[in-house]
Amino acid sequence: MNKVPPTMDSTDNLNRLAIPAEKKTRRTSGPALMIGIVLLALLTGGIVFLTAGKPKGTGKPAPAAAITNAPVASPAKPGDAVLTVSGYIIPRARIEISPRFQGTVKFINVKKGDQVKQGDILVQLDDAEFRARLLEAQGNLALSEANLTNAELNLKRQIELARTNVDSERARDDAQRARDVASAQVTAAKGVLALAQTYVDWCTIRSPINGTVLEKLVDPDELVVPQSFGGTRGPSTALVSLADLNDLQVEIDLNEADLSKIRMNQRCRISPEAYMDKKYTGAVAEIAPEANRSKGTLQVKVQIENPDTFLTPELSAKVEFIAD
User: How is residue 290 annotated by DSSP?
Assistant: First the structure.
């Protein structure tokens, strides 16, 4: 069978399906461009890596001596300050005088800022009730002593009568027991009298130390009690506040990162913020055994040597811890 040659229409259809030459070139150039970009990025990264260890402005890597011989801080010399912190001036012992029982203030003998000595009268409470009890106790003691005297005389008579067989030994024993009871009553009466006298003495409140009155907390005719009943307007629980201003410290909340720089009895220099030209010496007197977790601090107290009137409690001060 003879093949029929393609017609002109078939040839035209094949030509339309063929890919033009310019489109073939455009498709093959895409992968080459991507490869070039990747190679360029790798080359740039290599250059940056090689130059990272070189000093700025030179084309050579940093010498080993420049790294190993870096400057090191020299240790502090004796007398230099290794740490400077701020704190607050406080009296070493602050005393708030409270009554021993509920009472009414009769008068106050001091005011804020007064200097007092040990034994000075600070406050007088109303003692009328306790003085009445004291008189009652004195009367009971006198009565008990009179009964004892009578019992002793009766005992002597019974002993003599029993010796001469005028009266029985039983009567003598009863007289002996009556004398012993009277003696015990005298002892009890003396105890009641001493208690009444103690309450009278407690109505006169005296200073336990030599110091300064920091605060007067009550007024005359005010009710005071040894402990609060609760609430903000309840009875007062303290009369006056005292402190010895010749025994002062600086209280510091020290950051835990600085604890290695201090120790007990370490010498310090203190400067009150109000008088920076004033300098005082001192030493670390107390390091708290427990830290404050929320603050990350530890309380330290520095004892001030030879304080004067320029140092006022609750004022701030700078403390320099000195190297040995």
Answer: S
Scanning the structure block, which residue is given the tokens 């220099």?
Answer: 269
4, 16, 144, 176 from 11: Cα distances, Å: 14, 9, 155, 161
pLDDT of 304-313, one tens digit each? 999 998 999 9
- For residues 133 and 199, membership in a common domain is answered with yes
Domain that holds residue 257: 81-93+244-322
Write out pLDDT tens, residues 34-82.
676 767 777 776 676 665 555 554 545 444 444 445 455 556 677 788 9
Q: Does this model's pTM top 0.85? A: no
CA distance 175 to 164: 16
DSSP H or E segment with residue 153: helix 128-163
Domain boundary among 214, 241, 268: 241
SS3 of 231, please?
coil
Query: Residue 249, exposed/middle/buried by CB under 10 A (0-12, 13-18, 19+)?
Result: buried
